[in-house]
Amino acid sequence: MMLPGDLIGLSLHNLLLHKIRSVLTSLGVIFGVGSVIAMLAISEGAKQKALEQLQALGIDKILIYSKKPPQEGSASNDQSMVERYGLVEKDLQNVKKMDNIENVTAMRNSRLKVLRGLTSLDTKLVGTDIGFQKESNSKITRGRWLAPSDYENDAQVCVVGKDAKRKLFSLGTTDVVGKIIKVEGRSFKIVGEIENDIGASFPELDSPNDMILVPSKTLQSLTKNYSFIMNRRTSSITLVEYDLLLAKVRDTFYIDDTSKRITSYLSKAHGTKQDWGVLVPLDLLKQREATQNIFTIVMGSIAGISLIVGGIGIMNIMLASVFERRKEIGTRRALGAQKSDILFQFLIETVFLTSLGGVLGILTGIGISKVITIYADMPAVYSTWSIVASLAIAGSVGVIFGTYPAWKAAQQNPIEVLRAE
Amino acid sequence: MSQNVEVAKPHSDALVRLIDLQKTYYAGPLAVPVLKGLNFEVKRGEFVGIIGTSGSGKSTLLNILGMLDVPTGGQYILEDIEVEKLTDSELATIRNKKIGFIFQSFNLFPHLTVEQNIEVPMVYGRVNAKERRARAIELAQQVKLGHRLGHRPTQLSGGECQRVAVARALSNYPAFLLADEPTGNLDEKTSGEVMKMFHGLHDTGVTIIMVTHNPALEAHFDQVIRLRDGRIESIVAGGTER
Questions:
Q1: Which of A55, A80, B48, B202 has a CA positioned 20 to 30 A from the CA of residue B231?
Q2: What is the pTM of this model?
Q3: Cβ-count burial of B117 within 10 angstroms (0-12 exposed, 13-18 middle, 19+ buried)?
Q4: What are the extents of the domains in chain B?
């Protein structure tokens, strides 16, 4: 066998003789690898985005929330009624006592109508425990968060979320700390602004950015647990003690057990009334991953098919090349080339060809994912391993589809091919 | 053995010995004998011509002498090596080390320079790049192409191409040069020059076996072996023409 350096030099030399042909030949691999890279980048980006969103909710959290039970029978005929549903103080206390629960932050939506002029806003006035800012990973952008003294004194203060502020005040208003807002006759002094930039969104309550947060005790003293909802034909009183319990677990390993225990407790306590829900962000994450895996399998198959097609194309060209270079092969054999020299010459040539396709494919893939990021707002994340893996795949395509033409080249009978003109 | 020469006996200065060499091709049940028992030997430093018309078996003999093919009977002994016992890989190694091939149509690599063409057998002989280069330059000068090292075969004349091919054939210090109609593609004048070069090599002690159909070349050889229908018609000592 010839020296490895000479073998590599010879193969490269032959590829460079036909630059355009080499690039055209590796097109299949270029697009195959390109789609692998783009797929992995987009899928990794989506995964990280989902992870961030769910981390915003908290992977160490169990969200227990109240929901309006489905209307039964001909309830729609009831013109006036008291609707009582959802989580109550007893539920809160029982959940707090459970194993593996570190703390529980309770939230209540006042259901007060927040108006700007005559326009009703979808901003919610929410009574909350002091721990909410920390547990929801919200940032204080101005002023301060609710203080323990606000709770002791039933202070009529509030903290506004970023979007709530924008909706309440005219455009361009920056500092709203110290201003007073009125909600259905009740006044609250703004003491701070918060922003949740990691996209936390809670069932029934949505984003902290759209909340006006007041101390739970203040809300309690102002409205008890009642919310009046009136429209032209009906008036109803809604009685909900807690809309959301944000339970933080000590050990996420047992989060499933804990959520099951909560679920079974609530089913027992609330009987047939379907007025509650339990949500585990970690489960959502797992579901998302499962969906992601399907996406990866589909895209992976497409990439795989294009690599196979590309590989077959390369095999075809290499077979043609073997035929075209019969005389060269014969001469080399006559001058002392071993079969293995010829075999490796052609094999390395193919592997170079597909690796070149791999490199160009990686660049193509990065390009494709950049375009997708711009037009579809899907973040792309490139990992080192995906690039290494793509190169390895491209190289393997070369080995798989280059072996037969190379073997064919090595099997050429020098006597016959020397006679060929 | 109905030949008018005695069977070759082991001889101290015999480089190549053929003993009752036979080659038969099989086309299905049909056996086609091409070489029907050849006996001759080539001494070290001899300039031997093998002459025959087409169909005489000279191409087959050339392939066997060049170790591209193996005999189906008899023996071919090169130095002390019995060819029929060798594997494909060993044959390749012997082609590389012991035989200097010269083809009728030169068979140079068109994309390589003169120097790189001369280096090819050394590449397969695992000679390192530095030594290869030095040897290639030395050989190019020997065939008077020292000024053409960076040229490609397409930029050379037919005679120059054949000189490159000779330099290439000599690169691994072979036991003998095996030339297949080396002047077949050349005009008369250039042929004369190429033959002159072969004589020059012969004078320095290089063994040359030349296969040709051209009886006009007979006068050049020390020994002329005439083939006819797969048999040796005659072996005569020639007078070397200059």
A1: B202
A2: 0.72
A3: buried
A4: 45-70+88-237
